[in-house]
Amino acid sequence: xxxxxxxxxxxxxxxxxxxxxxxxxxxxxxxxxxxxxxxxxxxxxxxxxxxxxxxxxxxxxxxxxxxxxxxxxxxxxxxxxxxxxxxxxxxxxxxxxxxxxxxxxxxxxxxxxxxxxxxxxxxxxxxxxxxxxxxxxxxxxxxxxxxxxxxxxxxxxxxxxxxxxxxxxxxxxxxxxxxxxxxxxxxxxxxxxxxxxxxxxxxxxxxxxxxxxxxxxxxxxxxxxxxxxxxxxxxxxxxxxxxxxxxxxxxxxxxxxxxxxxxxxxxxxxxxxxxxxxxxxxxxxxxxxxxxxxxxxxxxxxxxxxxxxxxxxxxxxxxxxxxxxxxxxxxxxxxxxxxxxxxxxxxxxxxxxxxxxxxxxxxxxxxxxxxxxxxxxxxxxxxxxxxxx
Length: 389
What we know:
This protein is an alpha+beta fold. It has eight helices and 17 strands. It has helices spanning 3-26, 35-47, 51-60, 66-79, 108-117, 131-145, 247-256, 288-294; strands at 31-33, 91-101, 121-125, 165-176, 187-192, 198-204, 210-215, 218-224, 234-241, 269-270, 272-278, 280-287, 324-331, 335-339, 357-360, 365-371, 376-383. A seven-stranded antiparallel sheet has the order 1-17-16-9-8-7-10. Strand 16 (365-371) and strand 17 (376-383) form a beta hairpin. The two termini are 41 Å apart.
């Protein structure tokens, strides 16, 4: 398996997903989610499926085989998601959990994948008579794994006596900027909303050189996080359309051109003129299966093909009823704290070095958090109004 190509494919899937989530679930609101988190859950489902269901999952995830998916997941867990906090880098946690009804046991081959590849905590629960307790158990797990940021991952009533399995993934990220912003320079300015009105929002600023590039119709800014003692380099990318209402068109562009992000990365620091980045903090949750069905991934939700998960004839009747996802992000002068997983991208246009570039993010923009050595996108989102939690 070619890791770089697999990651590039995963990024394309992530950005396609981001567009659909923005259009169908976010509908005019701020958005943050981790396509990577959803990717991992779907990879785990694929490992327990066969026939047309497995084929459809592989096609959707742009992967040749479940072995490739498992290999990608295990490499990401070991390469990208080790906690960098002790070594001075970003704090990271990436956890998988599987809950199975006590009346079933996992097939040996599937249990091996759950244990060895996904390093998932396996829990036996009583869905049939204690669905509420099981829901609370999953929610407590997610809250603990995301440092208290993600509460109520599973909404009330989402688990009942017919539930047999739950797969969950949690991602937590906290990084400090390489060059922190001076809080005393943070001032209120107008942020222009898509509906034509504006609101006063605290903006951070800096006179330092920045990694910025201008492209046709948009600009890209890279804000690197402090690196630890390993090779990983995490950055946040801001994709800012030139037009105040240009975000929807930019999202279409980013998600439809394969390899877009890698082709649109700033590669040198330049002098900046006006430089303003809003502070923001919000959470976002959605039920992913609706979006996935809208993108053509229907078989895992229809009740056939998930035959490789449990040792029981019941396996023939299993289906995925829903996939819940929740994320949180906070961007301030110190850095970024985010919980969940996802990604996005930009083309190079040569600029004369003496040109100063303005980067004023005073209208809706796209952002992503990415590990630059591998190209893995952990989070993707849009800011439509920085004041809305």
